[in-house]
Amino acid sequence: MFQVLALILLMSCNSNEKKLMKITKEKVVENINVLRSAGFFEKYEELTNLQVYDSLYSIRKEKYSEIFKKPYDPGMELGVIELAEYDNTRLLFLDLEADVAKDNNVYINVINAFSKLSNNQFQPKEIKEKWESETGPIKVSFISNDSLVLFEPEYNNDWLNESVFSTCLKELTNKDVRIVECLSDDGFGYGQAIALMRLTKEEQKILETKLNLKFSSD
Q1: For 163-181, how does the pLDDT look when each residue is reduced to its tens digit (9 = 90+)?
Q2: Pairs from 145-153 (Cβ < 8 Å, separation ≥ 24)
Q3: What 3-state DSSP class applies to 137?
């Protein structure tokens, strides 16, 4: 459910860009090249940029076909953030209205997503999410570096509480994992979503210079 929501939101947040201009295959391949120069798609290091394009396209068609339960071709007219999201070790894109509810395990999913974003440098274990009722109180805990980490996110309908971000980002900081918030994709915002990237300062500069991405801070 969480992945489907993020997928739908990404389709929506790129719709304005697509209305203004058609994103060509050549442009997507060019953006893949820039993203790779900033550390993205390392698992495809043996492939050419065009082969990476073909691999992502295949994954994309398979995912959408599963969602719609029939063969479906969504195309590859992807904005930069939508493209970058195919590397979840580098970008975490989250809809803050994330269907948070008892038994949905959304906080567990988010913590695991931060682990992937850190390239498994942050390795939470025994992640638990306990609700005393449909509206909380909520207790979330996990083991990190042999220590118990516990936080109690305030219930806010189906929205994520910011405590999950501050808690996970603290763990990543302790691992010297640099995370920055990306504020815009060629001038477009993300509405109720947030985009976090794992980047060195040099990699961030590449994205700022070549893709016009903006970030909250160093």
Answers
A1: 999 999 999 999 999 999 9
A2: 145/174, 149/124, 153/107
A3: coil
